[in-house]
Amino acid sequence: MMLLFGLFIIFGGVFQCQGEYYGTFIGNFQTFAHSIAGTVYAVSDDAIFIKGFVYDGTGPDAFFWTGVSPRPEPRGTLIPYPEVRDGRDAAPLKRFESEDILLKLPPGTKVRDLRWLSVWCRRFTVDFGSLLFPPNIEPPMPQTLPEFKRFAHGVRSGNVTILDEKTIYIPNLHYDGEGPDAFFWVGNGTSPNPETVPPRLPKVQDPVEPPTFSSCLEFLDGKLQVSWAPDTESVIIKLSGRIKDNQYMAFGLSGAEDRSQMINGDVTVAFHDVETQQFVAEDYFLQAKSQCDGVNGVCPDRRLGGSNDVIVLGGRRHNGITTIIYRKNIENLDSRLDRPISTTGYANMIAAIGPLNQRKEANYHGGDRTGPDEIRRINFFQRDVLGCPVPLDKDIDAISEKGEIAPEMKKLKPWDPMVLKNVDVFHVKIGPTGGDRGYTAITGNPSWGLAFYVNDYLIPELVLERGKTYTFVVETGNDQTNPAEYHPFYITDSEEGGLGQNSDAQQVAYAGVAVVDGQYVPTAAGRHCRYVVGPNSKPELYSRFEDYFKTLTLECKDGNPHYLTFTVPANAPDELYYQCYTHTSLGWKIHIVDDHSGHHQFTGHAGAERAAQHSGASSLCLSSIIFLIFVRMWC
What we know:
Blueprint: E1 6-7, E2 24-28, E3 30-31, E4 37-44, E5 47-55, E6 62-67, E7 77-79, E8 96-104, E9 116-121, E10 126-132, E11 144-145, E12 149-150, E13 160-164, E14 167-169, E15 215-219, E16 224-230, E17 234-242, E18 247-253, E19 265-273, E20 278-286, E21 298-300, E22 310-318, E23 321-329, E24 347-355, E25 377-378, E26 386-387, H1 392-402, E27 418-420, E28 425-432, H2 439-443, E29 450-454, E30 457-458, E31 461-465, E32 469-474, E33 489-492, E34 508-511, E35 513-516, E36 519-522, E37 529-532, H3 545-549, E38 553-556, E39 562-567, E40 575-580, E41 589-593, E42 605-606, H4 608-612, E43 629-630
Parallel strand pairs: 15-26, 27-31, 27-42, 28-32, 31-41
Antiparallel strand pairs: 1-12, 2-4, 3-10, 4-5, 5-8, 6-7, 6-9, 9-10, 11-13, 13-14, 15-16, 16-17, 17-23, 18-19, 18-24, 19-20, 20-21, 22-23, 24-25, 28-29, 29-30, 32-39, 33-34, 33-40, 34-43, 35-36, 37-38, 40-41
C-alpha cells in the first residue's frame, strides 16, 4: 500500500532537451579575490542559476550584487541568498564549495535588463568576482508548476521549478519527518503509483548491504591495507591505516602506466576530521612535488577547477586504526584531472601516509610512500587476492573482544629548539623537516616536508634588535617553473606565511616583497640549495639535531644567492616570522628586542658558535630595498 502525503503534477512534457540544460548561458565568473567561480545561466526573467558556485566565505560583508550600469559599482541591487522574508536583512554569503544555487531576483528586477552580476563586498566596495552579461539575453520561458497538494504530515511548498531534465527546485518545502518510509517519488501518468517510476530513474530501494571485500593488498610495510570490491560502474575501496590524528592516507592510480610515479597521479586522500568528527575522502591530482598553491602542486581537484568525484560510504576509528570506505567511478569524470580505472587489466598504484596542513589538505608524506622502484599493480576486477595476512580492521575486532588495548605509537621527544642571537648574517637554505622530532614537534604546526635551515640549523628562532640591519643570504630556490624548487623568503607577522596563496590575508610583510602594478611580488629568491637525506637520515635514531644533521648532504643548483637586507623598524612588534612566500609553514619565529644587553628569556639553546662561522662575510653585495608593506585586507 502506498500512502500519498503530497504531490505536484506535470501536465505534458516540460522539457525536450538533450544533455544537461540549465537555461540560457550567460557566462562564467571572473575571480578577483576569495576564489570566486561558477557558471551562470538565466532560468527565467526572474531567476538566475549558478552551476558550481565557489566562494571561500572569508569576506565579512559579501553579497550577490547586480545592476544596469556598464560595470559593477556601489550603486546596485542586492540579491539575497538564501531568500529572506518578513522584511529581515539579508545575511552575508557563507562558504560555498562547488554548489549549485538558484537566485530569485527582487521584485521589479528582470534578467533582460541587467548588465552584470558580482560577488560584492559592501563594507569595502570591492568586487570579489563578477561577469558582464552579453547583450540581448533571451531567458527561457518560466517552467513553473503548482505547489505540492497537501494530504498528510504537513507537506507543503512554494511553486516548483523545473531547472533541467534532471533537476527539480522545490522552495520552502515543509514535512514533519514522521512518515515511516517517505521518499521523493516521480513518474509518468496522472497520479502516483508504485509502477510509474521512469526506467532511467531508479525506484527507491532498501539500503544496500555493505560490500564483501574478497581482495586485499598491503602497502607501506603493512601500515596501509587496501581492499576492493568492483561494482557495475564503480569500485568500492576500503582503506585501513595506522594513522594518527591530523594524518591522512592516500591511495590511487600512478601517474605512469609502467611504474610507480607521483607526478600526474590520481589519488584519493582520506582522513578522519577530528574537529567535525567526519570521515573525509577527497579526489586529488598530483601536478608537482610541492604544496598546493591553488594552481600547482599536490591539490584537491576542487582547487584546480574540478570536482570531488569520490563518495564516502562509511568509516571508523579504533585502537590506532582508521578505516574509510569510499566509492570511485570507473570512468574518468574529468579528463584533465581524473584517470580511468581499467576494467580488463592491471594498473600501477601509489600510496602514502602523511600530515594534514591547516587547510586540512595533504602535506609532504616523508618516507611513508611507495618508492619509484616499487611496483604495486592491481586488477580491480580480480577477486580473492589474499595479500593481507592479518587484516587490520579484523585484528581490531579481535583485540577489542579480548578487552586489550593496542599499544600507542611511540612518541619521540622533539629536538631542542635553537636560538640564534648576536648574529648579523643569516644563510637560509632548504632541507627536510626532521620527521616526528622536527618541524611539527617544535612548532606545533603541520609541515609540508620541507623547511628553512638557517646557519645550518632547522628553523632556529632568531633574535633581532630594533634599528639594526641584518643580511639574509637566501638560497631557497628561484625556479618559478618548478614549485618544488621555488621558495621565496620573506619576513612577516604571519605564523603561517604563504602570502602568495592569499594576498588578501590580514598580514604585514616587512621584507622580501615588492608591489609591482598593484600586485605583490616576492623579491628574495636565490639559487636552490637543499640538504638531502641519506640512507642513515632517520630522525627517530637521533636524540640531537646535530647528529641528524651530519647525515645530510648539501646539493646546490647553479646560480647565485639573493642578498636581502632588513633594518628592523623601531615600531616592529615583539614577534615576527621568516616564511616562504609561495608555501605555508616553512619557517619560524623572529624575536624583536630593543637591545641584546637585556636579559631576554627565550627557550632553546643558543647557536651563536656555529652561526659565527658564517658571519665573516663582511663585504656582501647588498641589492635589496628595505621597506615595510601593509597587506591590505579586502573583506
